[in-house]
Amino acid sequence: MNPLIFLLLIFISNALIPLSTCFEGTSTYYTSYTENGACSFGSISTTINKGYIYAGALNEAMYNDAIQCGICYEIVGPKGVIRIRVVDMCPANDENPKCKGESIAFDIAENGFSLIGEKSNGGANITFRMVACDIDENIKIVSSKGVSNSWYNFVVKDHIIGLKEVKITLDNNTFYECKRSKSNTWTFTSSNLLTTPFTIEMTSINDDKVYAIINDFTSEKEYQAFSNFKIPSDTFFDIKNLQKHNKNDDSEECCSMVDEYSVIYDDKFEGTWIENSNSLNSLDLKYDNDCYEGSYCVKTNMKQYGAFHFYAQYPASLQQYSSFKFFIKTKKECKECITVLCGDKKKIISITQADDWVEEIINFEELGYTSDTISSLSIQNNQQDTTYFFDSLSLIKNQKAPSTAKCFDENVVPNSTASVYMLFVAIILINLL
């Protein structure tokens, strides 16, 4: 192969190596990410260049006493995709309600979250998977303050995949286990005194081993291991207990976005949809008598030109959906009594069956709606004060819609000069071919 073509391919594609299947979770953001987090990796730089990995915290249950520290995840949100490294824990308390419980929640550094979601919304639903951290350096060991031959405490960082076990040996024959703390420090627990030099043995979640030699008892000193862990090519890991298993044959090439749009209302507003009606005399979102399906439906008494209105916190792509479907019921037949609005387009409909559920489907193409996104929908009353019932509101998927799957691309580095540089290099290479 022409070496210029080879170099160009490197610039064009640099996807992360997946280590798990894709899962759904939630995300929020935090602003104190530059400080030393629960994993004790030290302060985080805010300078975003090629190779920058955004910081993230996992909810307390998922953090699981620091076993997740240093592991990288690819995060797909409504706005884009990033990679993060677990450097902190999101405590399960009243200040962090989404970090309570067993469900998986990422608290992402503010500078990274803004690339996948809107900070004004406070959070975003995401899909994610474990990936190998694309670090091109050896593992590092950082000694703690006050280390000595009777107490040795340290942090292991910059490992490409998860770290599960650390031991120390004085003679390469007898190995002493080190204990991992909730703050991700490792402590030599033997009653024997250490003598230098000694060797630290680090074992990955894939049972790969890497070694480092320590020649002194200096506080807060950084040491280089001989290498980094190997990235497995045919192995996946359970994201909670980190046990390894064979890679699925049908595993996704990239993670698809969470579908937060198909179901608008089903017993309650779902996904990203939020009710924001106007000019209503009353509104009951939990009406439980003679609903079309499920336990609840909507009952509302609407003033003339009042609207049952709802919007998406993150707009839906029009490419993904063909129609808006809902069921409506009213006590009397009425002619041209309802206007359905999508953006600046509208369709006027009549109710031809009294006191019975009627299905209505509004096709966006027939409506003439051509915007790239669907951000809000309204059902307006055109007559005097009237009571309506609504149920099972949804968007119908376009069967020919393109995939929503996204993979992180190292060569796309938002808010930095690196992307411009990479594009410039790629253009030069193309001209040289």
Automatic annotation (TrEMBL):
It comes from the Eukaryota. PROSITE patterns: EXPANSIN_EG45. The keyword Magnesium does not apply. Residues 36-138 form the Expansin-like EG45 domain. Residues 1-22 form the signal peptide. Keywords: Disulfide bond, Signal. The keyword Signal applies. Belongs to the expansin family. Expansin A subfamily. This is Expansin-like EG45 domain-containing protein.
